[in-house]
Write the structure tokens for this entry.
Amino acid sequence: MPEHHLLTEEQAAEVLKELQVEKDKLPKIRMDDPAVVYLEQIHGKIQEGSIIKIIRKSETAGEFIAYRLVING
């Protein structure tokens, strides 16, 4: 499974500024996704609207970083 990291509010704001994108335009990840459920075991309850950073290994790029907006449904 790719690495998943919960961003702080400050980190999320920095990422959105860097990507020049509105939070609601990010791809989504549901709160019941197994990766979010796992992160909740580490961080406690994850709020809707939080941003998750996903790091995937890539043969061509070395690693690929994606961001997902946590949604309820």
The longest strand covers residues 62-71. Helices lie at 9-19, 34-43. The beta strands are 3-6, 28-30, 51-58, 62-71. Residues 20 and 65 are 16 Å apart (CA to CA).
